[in-house]
Amino acid sequence: MKKGFTLVELLAVIALLAIIIGFAAPAILERINSERGKINDVISDTVSAAANMYINNNKSKYSDNGIHYVKFKTLVDNDLLDKSILEDYNNYCVKATYVQEHYSFEVVSSCVEG
User: Fold this and answer.
1) Quick one: DSSP state of residue 109?
2) In angstroms, rounded to a whole number, what is the distance separating the alpha carbons of residues 54 and 102?
3) Tens of pLDDT, residues 62-105
4) Which 8-state DSSP code applies to residue 112?
5) Assessment of whether the complete model's pTM goes beyond 0.90
């Protein structure tokens, strides 16, 4: 008697695996994208807090009206962010908008500081 699997049995196993992967892949990709979104939210919150500290420490440079931009590099140079952030976000800035007695912050991909 021969040992091993027939071609039909191997094809059946491959088909079952393909079906399982077909159902699992969208859920896994959705989870990955969800986690990326959470990471981006954490980065945005951290950078916004750093920009808020920087602006409060340099009030003479920033007026309490209008829109100001602070580069990530400036925040790193002032020890408010770790320099590793510049590996992925080198030219990014924080847009600080003064509205109703406080600043709101938004991360933007490019700017002119000031």
Assistant:
1) S
2) 14
3) 776 788 899 999 999 999 999 998 888 888 999 999 888 888 99
4) -
5) no
